Amino acid sequence: MTRVWGLGLLLALLLPLVGTSMPGTVVRLNKAALSYVSEIGKAPLQRALQVTLPYLLDQSGETLQPTRIQIMNVHVPRLRLNFVADFGVHLLAAANFNFKVFRVPEPLELMLPVVLLADAHVAQGPIQTPVVSISACYSLFGNASVPAGSNSTSPALLVLLQKHIKAVLSNKLCLSVSNLVQGLNVHLGTLIGLKPVGPESQIRYSLVNVPTITNDYISLDINAVLFLLGKPIVLPVDTTPFALPHHAGTQGTVATVGLSQDLFDSALLLLQKAGALNLDITGQLNSDDNLLNTSALGRLIPEVARQFPKPMPVVLKVRLGATPVATLHTKNATLQLQPFIEVLAVASNSAFQSLFSLDVVVNLSLQLSVYKVKLQGTASVLGDVQVTVASSNVGTIDMDQVHTLIGTVFEKPLLDHLNALLGIGIALPNVVNLHYTSAKVFVYEGYAVVSSGLSYQH
Ligand SMILES: *[C@@H]1O[C@H](CO)[C@@H](O)[C@H](O)[C@H]1NC(C)=O
Ligand SMILES: *[C@@H]1O[C@H](CO)[C@@H](O)[C@H](O)[C@H]1NC(C)=O
Ligand SMILES: *[C@@H]1O[C@H](CO)[C@@H](O)[C@H](O)[C@H]1NC(C)=O
Ligand SMILES: *[C@@H]1O[C@H](CO)[C@@H](O)[C@H](O)[C@H]1NC(C)=O
Ligand SMILES: *[C@@H]1O[C@H](CO)[C@@H](O)[C@H](O)[C@H]1NC(C)=O
């Protein structure tokens, strides 16, 4: 069975998914995101620039003398990244190199300031991930100097050393920057990884078109596909293309993530199809706070008392046939559930006997939050629970009386169950080791927005 599911999952992933039926999200990385990258990027850049140098062959003397030169450390005091509209990102890094020259009779220390300039193009890769490539790269060299107080050297040797170092570094540094960017691309590729939603369900994001880049931000259209047992969840109606309005969320934030109504609808459809929202509420006999027994029901419905002279446990089978509906209004999100409840009693032969069934409508207020990479929710009942009798095997039911009883025994278990599910949450678009921090969720007419910082965990 697992093998069949595995195959189904594989097929679902390989089959081209129709773009129009995928719920949209937009991830906008603002200028503050580049500031963050330049802050955390200094250390990896320093490591990448620590290249090895070939020996210097000094032909000035009588004999050919190879001299070993080693980079002792690289310090990057300044790394500046800027968006370049319709293109990508411009990089400027100031680096100070410290060399040790293993010269006989005594070693020599050397400092060299270098400015690196690079243009990085951001595009959509073949597997629907963002891909960065270095399109231009230059290094500008300052003059080498010997640290004060160290052994002096002849100007001729300094010129020779400087020429050698520049010749080597002008190629190697740009190659190192390219390699660093390749590593970044591998990291960005994890965007499309399957993330678990529940035990048998996953979500997968992909970049659906070329990123939009302005001087202030890069905006990525990232669609989601939810899978249940390897099959994509397809909404009954075509999804509408989602665009993130410019001023949504808080200004100056690192990341702004727009989540379409379709994403909420898909997640709820997944929960319903998976049967995750169904639950059985069972009463225990001889417990004081349990109203679920035939003697308690029999006080309200005479026919129940007649059929069950001895108290028997009662079970509520709560089933969600209809998909829950999330409604997003400015500053408020609500959820409507329409459970069908079958009320059963355990008969003397320990078989279940259906007493009656109810159609219920519950309106819930939904609070959204983000923890690490997940969008989570908390629901609370809004107003009154609407209960109507769908069928009855115990004659006429006085709804006024049963309403209170059902409301009492049903509301809390349903809320606990729902909140446990919403608490698990659903992964937002992300790459490995990158978390959302201090996120605020804003709800607007037909969409939600997460304004957040980002934190890279090494
Ligand atoms: C300077 O030369 C002495 C030997 O003459 C050596 O021990 C020392 O390490 C050298 N200092 C530097 C900074 O290269
Ligand atoms: C490097 O030294 C040369 C000659 O002393 C000088 O002309 C030039 O301006 C210096 N360059 C820098 C970047 O300091
Ligand atoms: C049935 O429910 C009532 C109301 O909660 C309770 O007082 C009574 O003890 C219950 N009876 C049994 C047998 O559990
Ligand atoms: C949510 O917003 C809608 C539209 O503004 C309004 O009709 C509704 O009463 C609000 N609900 C809550 C719980 O605030
Ligand atoms: C639930 O909300 C809908 C839409 O706001 C409203 O029409 C309906 O009367 C509410 N039902 C209950 C049971 O509160």
TrEMBL record:
- Keywords of this entry: Signal
Coiled coil: which residue ranges?
Answer: none
Q: Name one GO molecular function term.
A: lipid binding
Q: Which Gene3D superfamilies match?
A: Bactericidal permeability-increasing protein, domain 1, Bactericidal permeability-increasing protein, domain 2
User: Which InterPro entries does its entry note?
Assistant: Bactericidal_perm-incr_a/b_dom, BPI_fold-BPI/LBP, Lipid-bd_serum_glycop_C, Lipid-bd_serum_glycop_N
What residue stretch is flagged as signal peptide?
Answer: 1-20
Would the keyword NADP be found if you checked this record's keyword annotation?
Answer: no
Q: Where is the Lipid-binding serum glycoprotein C-terminal domain?
A: 249-452
Q: Does the keyword Signal apply?
A: yes
Give one Pfam family, short name only: LBP_BPI_CETP_C
Family statement: Belongs to the BPI/LBP/Plunc superfamily. BPI/LBP family.
Q: What is this protein called?
A: BPI fold containing family B member 2
